[in-house]
Amino acid sequence: MASYIGTPTSRIDGHAKVTGGAKYAAEFNVPDLAHASIVSSTIAKGSIARIDTSEAMRVEGVIDVLTHQNRPPMAPADSAYRDDVGPEDGSPFRPLYDDKIMFSRQPIALVVAEEPEIARFAASLVRVDYNEAEHLTDLFRRGNKIVTLKAPAPPRGNAGKAYAASDVRHEAEYVIPIEHHNPMELFASTAIWEDGKLTVYDKTQGVQNVQRYLCNVFAMKPNEVRVVSLFVGGAFGAGLRPQYEAALVVLAARALRRSVRLVLTRQQMYGLSYRPATIERLALGAKPAGTLNAVTHEAIAMTSMHEDYARDDTAWSGRLYKSASAAYSHKLAKLDVPTPGDMRAPGAATGVYALECAMDELAVALKLDPLELRYRVYSDRDQNNDVPFTSKQLRECYRRGAEAFGWNKRNPEPRAMRDGSELVGWGIATGIWDALQMKFTVRIALTANGHAEVACGTSDIGTGTYTIMAQVTADMLGLPLDSVTVKLGDSTLPQSQVEGGSWTAASVSHAIAAAADKIKKELLRLAKKVPDSPLRSVKTEEVTLVDGKLVGNRDARHFVSIADAMRSGAVDRVEMESSSDFKDDSSHARNTHSAIFAEVKVDEELGVIRVTRVVNAVAAGRILNPKTASSQIMGSVVWGIGMALHEETLIDQAFGRIMNANFAEYHVPVNADVQDIKVIFVEEPDEIINPLGIKGVGEIGIVGVAAAIANAVYHATGKRVRDLPITLDKLMR
Ligand code: MOS
Q1: 598, 426 in Cβ contact below 8 A?
Q2: pTM given for the model
């Protein structure tokens, strides 16, 4: 049987995307569409004393200016603003709710006009007087209000004592600055008003999450608001929670009883989600032979005053490296900032960066090859929960990666390898991410002409979900790929979770398999009714759908075509809905793994760093589509280069305001920064995790990349820079 699963397959939505046929949230037009523009706070904390909209209102073409004083009603209860992804502790931000200012760039007024330019101009005429209060925005300030969270995993042994008793010790502090997602597509929402009902085209990773949120906030019934997000121009976690553009267009549409669009500016994109700046403290104690006695990992990350956002930064070593003792702790500094959010591999991207740099430093202290150290402390068990893994081909990642990179040719001495005026450095790091899976529901409709439509409320945030849904459906129903149509990104479709956490591939594929199985059962029931049916006495598991036919497994001459089966039942379509159902228990750890090898060249005089080669060898179970999966890893490696060398959101502490809220001063890697990236997928059969052995790829690609580059920079220069990004001034001083 031809299999699309595992075959490199071009995106089925690729043509629409590159020809402009794919419509994004800000591209849905209706006659009489009004355009909104946000006025945002210039202070970080306080309240609005007076807001004067009269000058803005006088501009020709301005329809209204909404503020907390004249907006339509919004729910008063905290619970109405909660969503599937937000932190459990705290009170979510409510746009235009009251006069309180909680962070710089908070939206405080919405100008609605006939044209976007008019709205934006008029927004500049809104005058605001503030009662300013003293703000706290500096993670590094002494005396911040600190919240200690429950440790992500229990301690093992007495790490403090074991560390003190270790022969070889390494202790250091690593710092990751605030980073922003910076997706190409700006956050945008178009609310189409139709007799009191709304269709909201929103940039989001979860249409049903946004729909529930809007229903709660505005006391609307589910049939009164539909949320659609067919294509997403990058989100990386920024679109997991309902962002304020959706609430604001609904507010305006309800106030004006009219369709409204809002597109954020690039500067305003710095007033929402971001990766929190984090201080990571690592202490590793070892024996001279290269075994670990103690791992202590403490993270202090920033969060907002109103919500406690945290992800696991610290417990990853318990799944990677055998250590007799370990202790983890996670603390939050409460600041006058928007709540941080998930950004590609939240927690791991930061925590594993620190862990993997610390491991490199320990290897130097032990005079051991850093790859050899990782082999010596390799753990086949998750020590945090004392369970095995469903699968863990990390050794194979090390082996295949090292071979592809040529690691055995490395001179261990720093500054020993050169290329002309440049110092050459080689570094490695390990990556790890969770292999999560969620309950997703899928509906498949198969028609007598052999065409299937598969539908699910999930999103495709650019990861290739449209394509893998088509691949899995085609395989399960024995149809050619182009006989499958995929529908997603619409709140009216069967319920699913947000697309995030790298869980969508496994979750949606198993729902498809379950729905396809129901279809097969129903077709067999109908096929048995065909006169002299050759499938009269076979069971469901004894037939397969191939080439538009239900075929007996034992004898391929025994078949009934889909068309004949449907004809016999006098139906022209069979439609089934089913959910993925995972038996996730605590008997196993479920993770993806990777080994990253990086080469840098550093100009000895100028400190300019170039990342000339990266090999990322990934073990992530069954790879559904090697083409889109390697694109995921490649994109993540590029982001890892940005994290290591370029990205940093800077706050002017005097104003509590981000200074570089633009692409000129927030640096991301450009083509010239990206050279040779090689992605390897290591075979990883996994019969425990789920029937199809899928783990999901995406986030795993970034974890460890910045560490491999930082370690390569040390190897090239002999200089250890622990606070990201590694800019040339830090190398030169
Ligand atoms: Mo991802 S940070 O779960 O979109």
Answers
A1: yes
A2: 0.97
